[in-house]
């Protein structure tokens, strides 16, 4: 993942603002700090924290849900096999999934050992760390390490989180501009798995001009380096009504109904946006160049997806698309800017070549049909003949059909008695190569009799109606062997 982006080294003290006179961050280390005012939410740039274990238990996987799997809002890493501990800490820098932002992954140093945190989830109002127990340790021994009151140092996968923060803060900026400049509410959004572009869903399509204007405006604010801060207060204070979100942007996701942390949290982009959210957000828009993919996908009449990229994922995307373009330019032996014109030429040439092949095939089919007719005249009576061809086209059967059609079109063939077998095999044959056979004639009974013999003696899979029969043969077609079976079938008519 690309990380060549300058960061402010630490979160400014003005980032986290408790706007209620009564809200306190629990200092008692026996108590777990609720989601909403966790260290990861107070200081998104803090990479490691010394804290204390509050409780731990062995994870009991829930029974597999019956029926179809529901659509998962946030992609979480799969839990590995083997025992998992659910660990509750006094405080944490590991973000539990929420607000459309996926879980952090990380580690907890406890009892002189680094324990892998594979997921972190909010249970009610608290962040539960899913800690992997290595094979060499029993779950009971692991539980002793995570006894209540034990010291623990928690840290997280910074690159994963930095990517998530870059895109989440960018989404707030993007949604705010869509709403205030174009009156387009964000219906939902997705922080997709790295490195795919993320998207917001809006209720209508957007023009190129609209997309460009939103992107320009966003990047003007990025250039200014607008500050971001967080305001928190109690969900329901005794002395007043529920905090009002007046002036706040309606968000795609409301507060989860099972959230019991009691904290109301609003993310503020200075002069641009106020949005209730639990995510970890960068302290400024600095270096969050926003790139909107210049097209939208209409999912339905009322939902359109607009894709966006920012931060390290944008750089990864540019690197990947450049590599794709450079690979195409290499194949076409041209410079990168010439690729579209060269591809257009190649496609055009291909169309012309396809047409020429079709014309030449038509002509060749006519010649083969004429040869068959000449043989017919020479035969004097009924013509029963087999012609085998070697042909590497994937449409070999269509070509055999073209020969039979050309034969039947000839005036000279009308009223005559004939049964003709055409077969075709590729030039390089193996046990899995496919050969095709076509039978046609003036007498339906003879054609079907030959078809039945091909099926019975050569294992050709096929069928037909009236005076036409065709099928496929898998394996190696040998002139003396398979051809001989056909000669026999024709001779027995
Ligand atoms: Zn958010």
Structural commentary:
This protein is an alpha+beta fold and 493 residues long. It folds into three domains: 32-60 and 73-156, Beta Barrel (Elongation Factor Tu (Ef-tu), domain 3); 161-332, Threonyl-tRNA Synthetase, Chain A, domain 2 (2-Layer Sandwich); 353-491, Diaminopimelate Epimerase, Chain A, domain 1. 31% of the residues lie in helices and 26% in strands. The protein contains nine helices and 19 strands. It has helices at 39-42, 139-145, 158-182, 208-224, 311-332, 339-379, 396-409, 444-458, 482-491, and strands at residues 16-18, 48-58, 84-89, 106-110, 113-123, 126-132, 151-156, 188-190, 198-202, 228-234, 263-269, 273-276, 291-300, 303-309, 383-390, 418-425, 434-441, 461-463, 468-474. The strands form four sheets. Strands 2-3-6-5-4-7 form a six-stranded antiparallel barrel. α6 (339-379) packs across α7 and α8 (444-458) packs antiparallel against α9. The radius of gyration is 36 Å and the shape is elongated. The structure holds zinc ion. Zinc ion binds at residues 99, 168, 172, 277, 279.
Give the topology.
Blueprint: E1 16-18, H1 39-42, E2 48-58, E3 84-89, E4 106-110, E5 113-123, E6 126-132, H2 139-145, E7 151-156, H3 158-182, E8 188-190, E9 198-202, H4 208-224, E10 228-234, E11 263-269, E12 273-276, E13 291-300, E14 303-309, H5 311-332, H6 339-379, E15 383-390, H7 396-409, E16 418-425, E17 434-441, H8 444-458, E18 461-463, E19 468-474, H9 482-491
Parallel strand pairs: 1-10, 15-16
Antiparallel strand pairs: 2-3, 2-7, 3-6, 4-5, 4-7, 5-6, 8-9, 9-14, 10-11, 11-12, 13-14, 16-17, 17-19, 18-19
Helix pairs in contact: 3-4, 6-7, 8-9
Bound molecules: zinc ion.
Family: Belongs to the class-II aminoacyl-tRNA synthetase family. Alax-L subfamily.
GO molecular function: aminoacyl-tRNA ligase activity; ATP binding; metal ion binding; Ser-tRNA(Ala) deacylase activity
Cofactor: Zn(2+)
